[in-house]
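Sorry to interrupt, but I need a hand with the structure work. Go ahead and set the record down below:
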Amino acid sequence: MDADRHEEKDLSAARLRRQLGETRELLGDHLSLYQIHSATVESGVLDDEEVLGELRALRAEGVAVGLSTTGPGQAATIDRAVATGLFDTVQSTWNLLERSAGEPLARAHAAGLGVIVKEGVANGRLTTRGAPPALAHAARDRGVTPDALALAAVLARPWAGVVLSGAATTVQLAENLAARTVTWDDEAEEALADLAEDAETYWARRAALPWA
């Protein structure tokens, strides 16, 4: 928590080879999916033939390869990844506040990629501690917590294959799992449509959140 830098994004082939070796040491034959993280068009990783070559070789061994996206340019990154014809999965942020990746994720799904959704509760902004009034009210009406309703919105997307939970306690996990019992309908969609933020605004606010 006291680190000068909490995250280092190095998408080079050398780092990929090193980390893949470390992954194999830990997982052995159990490695079935390998993802490069925080890919963006601007990083150049999707045009780096050395990196792509390493991923093609890994895929030829029977390991699925994927990527995760980040930042306000997620849409362009997803479309560029699909165009490579290389990736089996894409992991992206989609939630009631940040919806910009929705259409490209639908296109990725249609192209045969598995879609993994992260940050469904917007790093705590869609939980009880930070829920906008409209979400808190809609959740109360349905007898669930705000995070359950927020995750139900993600689960309702026809392209969402896996929705990740960021729960850190058993109570949070139980609240998250309640999303499976919530019916997301047109009324909820309409009531919470105004929560959506511009992508640039969302990611600027996300960057300002404290590490906790």
